[in-house]
């Protein structure tokens, strides 16, 4: 939670997978929009039910529910090798959402917050992060401007954004990328390999961004 003097908001940070081939491991992103598309783990081509899922050992994923193998739906091919689908397999993950409780909390927060000015969301502050040194980046060490509409992929931001929206609280997430888009071998492009780099870069950007909020209030931005 961040208090700027005029209002309160949420700044969330962490790591993310990468769906943009223009971005590199260690790049930090600030998404403009979020979407919750269910929670699932998409396996690499060639992996099957016997292979451990990425981050499964840490308890983030389970193979208990919802296995979908795209090759099972290939039409007109009897040779298993020819019918193999590069989309491979998806493991869906269980979720629990308490919407009645969220609606009740949102109504209560609206009564408390009233028409208070929300000072957290100022798009122009993103420009202040350009040139920020990120020594842990793989191919470059400074921040750049807007790159693409392709999103980072992770598990928490949309859920936190939903709660923040219900409560009428401004929200922003900072996500640093832990892998490359487009796959790659399990040795060179495994999320767990670069967790520390991505996590540190997300923290560095967050520590730079939060003071900008207070400075913006003082300047009347």
UniProtKB/TrEMBL annotation:
Domain (Nucleoside phosphorylase): residue spans on this chain: 150-210
Pfam families: PNP_UDP_1 (PF01048)
GO biological process, one term: nucleoside metabolic process
MF terms in GO: catalytic activity
InterPro entries referenced in this protein's UniProt entry, alphabetically: Nucleoside_phosphorylase_d (IPR000845), Nucleoside_phosphorylase_sf (IPR035994)
Top-rank taxon, per record: Eukaryota
Protein name from the UniProt record: Nucleoside phosphorylase domain-containing protein
Species of the source: Eleusine coracana subsp. coracana
């Amino acid at each position: 939670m961040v208090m700027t003097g005029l209002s309160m908001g949420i700044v969330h940070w962490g790591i993310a997978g990468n769906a943009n081939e223009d971005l590199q491991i260690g790049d930090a992103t600030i998404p403009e929009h979020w979407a919750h598309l269910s929670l699932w783990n998409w396996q690499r081509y060639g992996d099957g039910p016997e292979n451990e899922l990425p981050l499964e050992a840490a308890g983030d994923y389970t193979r208990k529910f919802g296995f979908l193998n795209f090759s099972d739906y290939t039409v007109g091919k009897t040779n298993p090798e020819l019918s193999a689908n590069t989309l491979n397999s998806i493991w869906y993950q269980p979720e629990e959402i308490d919407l009645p409780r969220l609606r009740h909390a949102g109504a209560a927060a609206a009564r408390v917050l009233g028409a208070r000015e929300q000072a957290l969301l100022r798009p122009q502050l993103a420009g202040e992060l350009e040139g920020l040194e990120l020594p842990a980046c793989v191919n470059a060490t400074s921040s750049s401007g807007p790159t693409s509409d392709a999103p980072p992929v992770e598990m928490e931001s949309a859920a936190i954004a939903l709660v923040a929206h219900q409560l009428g609280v401004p929200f922003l997430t900072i996500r640093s990328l832990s892998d490359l888009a487009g796959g790659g071998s399990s040795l060179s492009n495994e999320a767990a390999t670069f967790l520390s780099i991505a996590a540190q870069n997300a923290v560095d950007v967050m520590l730079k961004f939060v003071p900008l909020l207070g400075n913006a209030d003082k300047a009347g931005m």
